[in-house]
Write a structure and sequence with these properties.
The protein is an alpha/beta fold and 427 residues long. Helices cover 36% and strands 22% of the residues. Strands 1, 2, 3, 4, 5, 6, 13, 14 and 15 form a nine-stranded mixed β-sheet that branches. Strands 9-11-7-12 form a four-stranded antiparallel β-sheet, covered by helices on one side. A two-stranded antiparallel ribbon has the order 8-10. It binds zinc ion.
């Protein structure tokens, strides 16, 4: 059976992206839509109205995740697609939002052009992913996967000392019911997301098939030397913490360069104390972010980074403290779902490239409970988490087409049978 390629209503999708992107803008035009804020609730209500008008049955769960369901010939399990609706401070219109509104456009195309799917298809708008209000990364997908810790909502506070539990109450939710958001009926998950890099753009490929999400280790470093007079202390007698940090930084950069792509290591923040023109810096604090999609290589790189720090500290008579504030293993995604995306792209005539995600996504959480893969959409100049985030609608549409075809294939009986043969690995 050969159906024509899916046709996406580009105009409607572009208009919705603009409308959603205007919710949460301040007087200067900066976008910020933190979880459980009034602007977040407004955005969710608007998306719910769009889902309703598309004829989907909608509901929100105990965490505030929004679902829109296209019924299938059977009642379950469900093929799920979506992303998050919260944003970073001064964010853009596409990160997260495109995965939700693109999913809606894909499902509308399925309804109009393919009809009722064999299995139900659902869209999810996750309530929170960015950790831009609370340090609660992946709150929405973690709730769906049953991975919220009992004390989290009362422990986490925003910058105004409002707890996550209080923030939930403000939008009519109850933190002690968040466990009810758990689902065990998801057959597969696909997330469409902007690349947030420039690999697709540089290569001229239309769509990225993400097969794994990189591992990440973030360190907080303190080098302690001695603050001395910059005029009277001879070079040989100094214990200059900032000079030590500078040596460590250039050697850490070289380590990642030597290992080669996709290894990356970044010093993103640095504070020197006492911070005076005429004083040798006695104490420096900085952060290191080390990422690699291969677990062994990531461990090796992180180990080498720590060795460099120890060598530098020792040779310069500095005290060293290393704190780890984030440590995520790489997440391999589902070959089965990635292969269905590849098949869908061939069907729709869209060129693809296999990729690793260098950023974290809800998909790394979802992959713990269901076969999961991602579709990357090109990002102009690789820019994200910025008002300059942009992808032209004629580059978005082919990816949404492939998402629609992927959902249709996953919801078809053939895929169900193959999916049942894929072993489920708990991670
Ligand atoms: Zn995102």
């Amino acid at each position: 059976v050969s159906e024509p390629a899916l046709s996406i209503d580009e105009q409607r999708l572009a208009t919705r992206l603009g409308e959603l992107g205007n919710i949460g803008r301040d007087e200067e035009g900066r976008l910020f839509r933190p979880v459980y804020s009034p602007q977040w609730a407004e955005a969710r209500d608007l998306i719910q109205r769009w889902m309703d008008s598309a004829g989907l049955s909608t509901r929100t769960d105990a965490a505030g995740n929004l679902f829109g369901r296209l019924d299938g010939d059977t009642v379950g399990p469900v093929v799920l697609t979506g992303s998050h609706i919260d944003t970073v401070r001064d964010g853009g219109n596409y990160d997260g939002a495109l995965g939700v509104l693109g999913a809606l456009a894909a499902v509308e195309a399925i309804q109009d052009q393919l009809g009722r799917p064999p299995q139900p298809i659902e869209i999810v708008a996750f309530c929170e992913e960015e950790a831009s209000r609370f340090t609660s990364s992946f709150w929405g997908s973690r709730a769906l996967c049953g991975l919220i810790e009992a004390t989290e909502a009362e422990r986490l506070v925003d910058e105004s000392a409002v707890t996550l539990a209080e923030a939930m109450r403000d939008v009519g939710l109850s933190h002690d019911r968040v466990g009810e958001a758990f689902r065990d009926d998801v057959a597969a998950f696909v997330e469409l997301h902007i690349e947030q890099g420039r690999i697709l753009e540089d290569a001229g490929d239309q769509l990225g098939i993400v097969r794994s999400i990189t591992g990440l280790r973030q360190l907080g470093i303190t080098l302690l030397g001695r603050a001395d007079h910059a005029g009277t202390t001879p070079m040989i007698l100094r214990r200059d913490a900032l000079a030590g940090a500078a040596e460590a930084m250039s050697r850490i950069e070289a380590l990642a360069m030597e290992m080669g792509p996709p290894a990356v290591a970044t010093v993103g923040t640095i504070v020197a104390e006492p911070g005076s023109t005429n004083v040798v810096p006695g104490r420096v604090r900085f952060t290191i972010d080390v990422r690699h999609p291969n677990a062994d290589a990531g461990h090796r790189l992180a180990g080498d980074v720590e060795s460099v720090l120890r060598e530098v500290a020792q040779s310069r008579g500095l005290e060293l403290a290393i704190g780890v504030f984030n440590d995520h293993a790489p997440t391999p995604l589902s070959d089965l779902v990635a292969n269905v995306i590849a098949k869908a792209a061939r069907y729709e005539g869209v060129s693809t490239r296999e990729m690793v995600s260098g950023g974290g996504h809800d998909s790394q959480i979802m992959s713990r409970i269901t076969p999961t893969a991602m579709i990357f959409v090109p990002s102009r100049d690789g820019i994200s988490h910025s008002p300059d985030e942009f992808t032209p609608i004629d580059q978005i549409a082919p990816c949404v087409q492939v998402l629609g075809r992927t959902m249709w294939l996953l919801a078809s009986e053939d895929s169900v049978q193959r999916r049942q043969r894929e072993p489920q690995v708990a991670r």
